[in-house]
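User: I'm putting together a small comparison set for a docking exercise, and I want a reference complex before I start. The sequence is below, and the ligand is zinc ion. Could you produce the 3D structure with the ligand included, as C-alpha cells?
Assistant: Of course. I'll restate your input first, then give the C-alpha cells for the complex.
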Amino acid sequence: MIWQLYSVLFFLAFHNNSEWGFFAHAQINELAVYTLPIDMKVFFSPQQDYLKRHATDADKRRYASAFEATRHFIDLDQYGEFPYSSLKRDFKADLYSYSSLEFIQYHNQDTLYLPIPGSVLNQQAFINWFDTTAMQYYYETVWVVPLSDTLRSRSGYEAVRIIDHLTPHGVLPYNLERVYRKLVRAFYEKKGSTICRYAADLGHYVGDATVPLHTCSNYNGQKTGQYGIHAYWVSRIPELFFDQYHV
Ligand SMILES: [Zn+2]
C-alpha cells in the first residue's frame, strides 16, 4: 500500500492537467442532457446549469484523497492486448488476482512477510474473507487485515498484508459502476440533490473514459517523445475547435 501511495503521489505530481479541461467537461455534461429520454429530460433539463458547473468536482476531490486520482484513468496496456481477458471486470475479483498477499509472522523483534501459496489463495473460504473482511480495510494506509478465527486456526497466522497492484494503474471502469449504482440508489430514494451530484460526477468519469490518454500508461506522451500532449488534447484542442464539432 505504501508503494501504491507513492504511485498515486507520483501521479498527482505530474498529472495536474491530466483531465478533459473544465471547458470540455462542462460541454459534455451539458450536451448529455439532450441525449436523455424524455422522462429523464424533464428532471435534468432544469439542472443543466448545475451539471455544467459541477462537471469537474471529481477532479477537485483528487487533491483530498489519494484514491480519487485512480478513479479517473486505467492503464490498460498493463493487461496485455484487447480484449484484456486477464481482467474479470469485477473489482473485488480483479483486485484479488492483481494483489500480493502475505501472511504476517512476528518473530522476536522482527516482522516477517511470507507469500501465501496459490493452493491457499484458491480456497473459497479465503476468497470470501477477502471479499468481506479484507475489503473493509481497502482504504487504510497500510493494508493489513486480521484473519477470521477459522482461517487463523487453519493457517497458523494472525493476519495478512495485502499489496495492491491493481489500483495504482487506475480503476476508472470499476468506478463508473460504483457511481452508477449510487445514482440509481439516489433515484430510488428520490433525493434530488444527490441525484444531481452523482449525475455530474458520472458525466465527468464517462468523459474521462473517452480520452484515449486516460486508458494507457503513456498518458502524456512521455514514452514516445510527445511530452505535454495530454493538456493539448484535453484542453487546447476542444477550446480551439469546439465550434467545428458535430454535436
Ligand atoms: Zn477526471
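Residues 192-209 form the longest helix (18 residues). The chain has 13 helices and four strands.
User: Thanks, that's exactly what I needed.
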